[in-house]
Amino acid sequence: MLPDRAIVEEISNTIRFLAADMVQKANSGHPGMPMGLADAASAFSFHFRHNPNNPQWLNRDRVVFSGGHGSALVYSLLHLWGYPLTLDDLKAFRQLDSKTPGHPERDCTKGVEVTTGPLGQGFANAVGFAFAAKRGRALLGEAIIDHKIWCFCGDGDIMEGISYEAASFAGHNALDNLIVIYDSNDVTIDGALDICFSEDVAARFRAQRWDVIETDGHDFERLDRAFSEARNQTKPTIIIAKTKIAKGAASLEGSPKSHGAPLGKSEIAASKLKARWNAEPFYIPQTALAWLRTALEKGELYEREWNDRVLRSDKKPLLDKLLNPDFNSIQYPVFDDSPKATRDTNGEIINAIAKALPGFFGGSADLAGSNKTELKGLGVAPLGANIRFGIREHAMSAITNAIALYGLFIPFDSTFFVFSDYQKPAARVAALTSAKRFFIWTHDSLGVGEDGATHQPVEQLSTLRALPNFYAFRPADGRENIVAWKTALTLDAPSAFVLSRQALPALPSSAAKGDPSKGGYLISLSKQARITLIASGSEVALALAAKDILQNDKIGANVVSVPCFDLFVEQDESYIETIIDPDTIAIAIEAASGIEWFRFAEAVVGMESFGASASADRLFDRFGFTPDRVAELAKSLLAESSV
User: Fold this and answer.
1) What string of DSSP letters covers 162-203?
2) Architecture in CATH of 513-642
3) How far apart, in whole angstroms, are the C-alpha atoms of residue 562 and residue 578?
4) What band does 70 get if pLDDT is binned at 50, 70 and 90?
5) How far apart are CA 103 and CA 26, in angstroms?
6) What 8-state DSSP symbol labels residue 380?
7) What count of Cα atoms within 13 Å lies in the side-chain half-sphere of residue 295?
C-alpha cells in the first residue's frame, strides 16, 4: 500500500531530478526515460521485495532495466533504497572507474542484476530469470523460491526481434512470476513513435499468452493496483504504462530532444521551479529518503523469515548441492580409440555432468537430436533438465545468460555453429558479465557437407576468439573434449564447445609435451623438427597425416593441438615457446578463416571464401585441406627460408 500522495509525489520528484542532475553534471546521458518513469518507479518501490544489505539474497525479487540507457533511474533508485552507492557515486555518473557507468553493468554496481544496454537483451534476461525461478520453485518448493521478476522496458525493447522470441517463450511456459512494465511514451530518438511503429502491443502480448494491464503511468493509485494485480496472475504479465518522456521538464516534456542529451541548466532550473523543487543539484529531501530506506529494514525481515523457512525445509540438502556443485563427483565417460564425432562425445559428457550436478541443465534451438544435447531420462524443464527453446536462437542465448546469473544453475544452450551469429550479442554480454554458461555449437566446419555454404561456418570461430573473457573450445577427440569440460567448469566466464558433425580419429592418449588444459600442447614431437603444424578440431588429424608425409621425406615436424586458442594465448611466453618452437617454421591449419593464427604462424591453410554443397571429403579436397597440400606448403616455406 502506498503512503500519502504527497509523499509519493516527493519521492517521484526526488528520482526525477536526481536523474536529470546526474546527466547534466556528466554532460552526457539520457534524462527523458528516467524522468518519465519516475512515477512508476516510485509506486514500484513499495512492491519490490529485496534486501539492499544483501544484494545476492537468493529469494529476492529481481528487477531488470532493459532500457539500460536510462541508467540514471537505476542508480537513483539504488542509492535511495540503501544499496552501497553513495551520492558521490551519483555525481561521478559516466566517469572513468566510477560505479555508475553509462549503461548498468552487473560486476560494477551492487544491485544491478544484469548488464543491459543492447535493447531487447534485458527483456529476454528477465524471461531467463523467471524461467530459472520457476525451475527453482519446482525443485525446492515455494517455501524457498516464491519471488517475482520485474522488468522495465521501452519502445526500443518491444521493437527488437529478440523480445518477440522471449515473450513467446515466456507465454508458452506460463511464467506467472514475470511482470514487465512497458514505458509506452510514444517517442523514439528520431521523433514520434508512429513514424516507425504502429503495432497493437496489447493484442500482440495477448496472442503470446500474456495477461495485459493498461494504465496511466503517472497515476499512482492505478499503478499501485496494477502492481498488486500482476502479482496474482497465472500468466506472465505486461503492464502497459502510458507515460510522457521527460515528465516534469518545463518545455521538453514529451519531446524527443529529451531522449539522449542533457536538458541544459536553464531547462532544469525552470523544471525545478515549476515543481517547486529545491534548485540545489542532487537535492534529496529527508522524508523521501526515509520512506525509501525502509527497504533496508523490510529486506532484513524478508531474509530472516526466509532463512527460517529454509532451515525447516526438507529441500535444504538439495539447495546446498545447487549452491555448491561438486565437480569432482562427475564420472566422465571413457573413450576408446574408435573414431567418433565430437558432437557425440560431447553428448555423453554432458549427460554424465547432468547426472552428477542437479543444477546443470539446458537445451537446444529445436536441434537436440543433431546437437546431441538431449539429457536422457531427465525430463523437460522446468522440473526436468531439458529446455525446449524452440527455434529462438536470439532469445535462447539471452535467456540462458540470465539462468546462469540467477544463482542456482549451470546452464547450456545449443545450435549449429553457423547460427552462433544469431547469438553473438548475448555471447558478448555473457563475456561482459562473466556468466558461467556454455554454448554448444555443432556442425563446426566444411564437415557439414551437403547443406552448403549457408550452413558452413567460415568466419565465426575467428570472431569468437576475438571476444574478451570468452573461451571457445574446439576439441579434436573425446579425450580432449573431457579436458575441455573439466577446464571450462573451473572458469568464471562463458565457454563454448565447437564440435564436429563427422567422426574424427582418436589422438594419442597422452601429450608429448605440455598440458591440454592450458589450451595448447604438443601432440607429436620430433627431435629435429624444422616445421611446427598447428591445428584444432578435425584438422589435428590432418596435421598428423601431413607430419607423416614430411617425415618420410626426412623433414622433422612437430604437431600442436590447440583445443582452446583463448586459453593458449593467456599462457606465459616460456610455455608457448616450449609448444611452438621459435626455431621452426609454423603453419596453422583450420577449415575456417583462421586469421588469428598469424599471431604464431608464418602461413595459414584456411578458408578464403564461403564453402559449397558436397560431401565433407570432397569439400576438404576442393579447398585444400589435405595432408599433401600441407606437406607441399611446408616444403616450399623451407626452400624459401634457405635461399
Assistant:
1) HHHHHHHHHHHTT-TTEEEEEEE-SEETTEEGGGT----HHH
2) 3-Layer(aba) Sandwich (3.40)
3) 14
4) very high
5) 13
6) B
7) 27
* 586 three-state secondary structure: strand
Flag whether the pTM goes above 0.85: yes
pLDDT of residue 643: 61
Alpha-carbon gap, residue 57 to 51, rounded angstroms: 7
Q: Which pLDDT score, from 0 to 100, does residue 509 have?
A: 84
Cell of 54: 544483501
Whether 585 contacts 455, CB under 8 Å? no
Query: How many angstroms separate the CA atoms of 601 and 462, rounded?
Result: 15
pLDDT in tens, 272-302: 999 999 999 999 999 999 999 999 999 999 9
Domains 5-302 and 513-642 belong to one CATH topology? yes
Give the start-to-end residue ranges of the domains of the chain: 5-302, 327-498, 513-642
- What are 160's three cell numbers? 527488437
- Give the HSE-up count for residue 31: Cα atoms under 13 Å, Cβ half-sphere: 31
Alpha helices in 505-615, H assignment, sequence order? 539-552, 565-568, 573-579
Residues 65 and 71 sit within 8 Å (Cβ to Cβ): yes
Across the range 516-542, mean pLDDT stands at 97
User: CA separation (Å) from 21 to 40, 192, 261, 264, 614?
Assistant: 19, 25, 12, 10, 62
For residue 337, pLDDT beyond 70: yes
Angle at 369 between CA 364 and CA 375, to 5 degrees: 65
CB 393 within 8 A of CB 415: yes
How do residues 547-575 score in pLDDT, each as one tens digit? 999 999 999 999 999 999 999 999 999 99
The one-letter code for the residue type at 428 is: R
At 217-231, the pLDDT tens digits run 999 999 999 999 999
**Topology (CATH) of 5-302:** Rossmann fold (3.40.50)
327-498: CATH class: alpha beta
Assess whether 608 carries a catalytic annotation. no
Name the catalytic one among 105, 393, 480, 590.
393
User: Is residue 338 very low, low, confident or very high in pLDDT (cuts 50, 70, 90)?
Assistant: very high
Sign (positive or negative) of CA dihedral 136, 114, 164, 422: negative
% of the chain surpassing 70 pLDDT: 100
Cell numbers at 230, concatenated:
500482476
Residues near 247 by beta carbon (within 8 Å), at least 6 away in sequence: 16, 35, 36, 38, 39, 218, 253
- Given a contact cutoff of 8 angstroms between Cβ atoms, the answer to whether 67 and 116 are in contact is yes
pLDDT the model gives residue 642: 79
